[in-house]
Amino acid sequence: MTREDAENSLTLHARQAVALLPAEWPKPFLHSSPKHIRELAEQGDWRQVIYSIDNAGRSNPLSGDLASHVREARLAVSIIECLTTQYAIDRLTEVETKIVGECLNAAAHGPFFPDWEFHTLFGLTRQRIADIAHRWPAVDTNADDVGKAVNNSFNMLLGYPHKKWNAWSEFVSMPPQQATKVYERWRELTARRLSKNQGARRHFDYFE
User: Fold this and answer.
1) What is the count of structural domains for the chain?
2) Does residue 102 share a domain with residue 21?
3) Are residues 68 and 137 in the same domain?
4) Which terminus of the chain, N or C, has less C-beta within 10 A?
5) For the chain, which residues score pLDDT lower than 50?
6) What is the pLDDT of residues 25-34, one digit of tens each?
């Protein structure tokens, strides 16, 4: 499947999945409410739509049709992630590559995120982020979670109200305002949308 085919499949199945969402989940799930997922859909951020439904589905059973569309969309996401992650790594500058590695390390080993919430925020374990950070940039881009790890490390470090900005410089050698530009570059290279609720437009609300 080509990247174009995968993106078309993702859009098709993600749209269908959103149409099948309930008004509310039986068990409310942080950062993955149906309302939030519909907002992501309005912005065309289909990958994040599927990640969010997946997160919610860990605590809430998905209907047969919804689960089927999510499964097909997830396969498309996997293909897109593998293709775009290698593309991005090949085009990052030396400085950008360094900052990505530092942000992965900060997410895994820094004081920014509590253990109890880590998997909910990242969709990955702390150990998996640490493994990717350790290998960066010589990572296995056939693993479809590498791009997700990079994206979510930036997004959470810059957007989550961790109130640990005093520890930032211990892990990242570039100020948050400049690191945001690296994040935007990563999202551009991996064909992710920089919506009104992501990137620099959102992160500085939490800076102290």
Assistant:
1) 2
2) no
3) no
4) C
5) 196-208
6) 998 876 789 9
